[in-house]
Design a protein that fits this description.
Blueprint: H1 2-42, H2 51-69, H3 75-85
């Protein structure tokens, strides 16, 4: 039962991380689209200033995606880390 329960908890945590990433991505797209619209309405086309929040926030979004979809840790890595901590 312990193995099954642990697997269930890991699956729930993984699904939660994916849902949080989807919300983060949606906020990124909507907010940055709004900033580009403000720029388009108020600017004379000289400096595309929305690029700064797009790139800055984009870096954080990439790290979030890496955390959610990056290579999962294998059992060998987990056991190695456990031995290191002992």
């Amino acid at each position: 039962m312990t193995g099954e329960g642990d697997l269930r908890e890991r699956a729930i945590a993984s699904l939660k991380k994916k849902r949080e990433f989807a919300a983060h991505l949606l906020a990124y797209v909507l907010v940055n689209a709004f900033l580009v619209a403000i720029w388009a309405v108020t600017s004379d086309g000289t400096l595309f200033w929305p690029i700064f929040p797009i790139l800055g926030w984009g870096i954080g979004l990439v790290f979030h995606a890496w955390d959610v979809y990056g290579r999962p840790q294998g059992e060998e890595q987990i056991h190695h880390e456990m031995e290191r901590l002992r």
